[in-house]
Amino acid sequence: MSTPPEDTRTMRERMLAGDLYIADDPEIAEAAHASLDLMAAYNATSSRQEPLRRRLLDELLGSLGEDSVIRPPFYVDLGSNIRIGARCFANFGLTALDVAPITIGDDVQIGPHVQLLTPTHPVEPEPRRAKWEAARPITIGDNVWLGGGVVVCPGVTIGQNTVVGAGAVVTRDLPADVVAVGNPARVVRTIEA
């Protein structure tokens, strides 16, 4: 499988559009290496280095809202495709694979070892062997709480005020104002305002 000759976009442009791209393309790889360096520097900081942590996150991420905290270790693909609102908290071990945009609203609480996974891979063996992949964005609404170990799959949107129980695997969109649990995550109750 190769890039169609009429498609003149770069692999990075294809990636951001959600189309198939080659993950080890030199431009993407260079951006990933720069992100890995920033991520390593961030993960080596201590809690007494908050100004340095903030500077590193400001350089690594697309945007980080006021009074938001991410406890290291923190893992990203690129970082630049992640937008985090104000007053958010992410506990230890957040993995946010952002080859597509990840948008996190205000006042979001993220438990330890949560995974936000935008990459997808072809089911067919030949394109996968040729290193083709794609990605779909993830959107987390305002005031969402993701319990420890939650996995959010590619293309998922979680509505505002929703709570996702620990260990849930979110494979489809969740509406606002619900509690969802399980694998795959399913709504078990509505949250009254």
Task: Write the topology of this structure.
Elements: H1 11-16, E1 21-22, H2 26-43, H3 50-60, E2 63-64, E3 69-70, E4 74-76, E5 82-84, E6 89-90, E7 94-97, E8 102-104, E9 109-110, E10 115-117, E11 119-120, H4 125-129, E12 132-135, E13 138-140, E14 145-146, E15 151-152, E16 157-158, E17 163-164, E18 169-170, E19 178-181, E20 186-190
Parallel strand pairs: 2-5, 3-6, 4-7, 5-8, 6-9, 7-10, 8-13, 9-14, 10-15, 13-16, 14-17, 15-18, 17-19
Antiparallel strand pairs: 1-12, 11-12, 19-20
Helix pairs in contact: 2-3
Fold and architecture overview:
The protein has 193 residues and is an alpha/beta fold. The protein has a single domain (11-190), classed as UDP N-Acetylglucosamine Acyltransferase, domain 1. 21% of the residues lie in helices and 28% in strands. It has helices spanning 11-16, 26-43, 50-60, 125-129, and strands spanning 21-22, 63-64, 69-70, 74-76, 82-84, 89-90, 94-97, 102-104, 109-110, 115-117, 119-120, 132-135, 138-140, 145-146, 151-152, 157-158, 163-164, 169-170, 178-181, 186-190. Strands 3-6-9-14-17-19-20 form a seven-stranded mixed beta sheet, with no helix packed on it. Strands 2-5-8-13-16 form a five-stranded parallel beta sheet, with no helix packed on it. Helix 2 packs antiparallel against helix 3 (50-60). The longest helix has 18 residues, at 26-43. The chain is globular. The N and C termini lie far apart (51 Å). The mean pLDDT is 94.
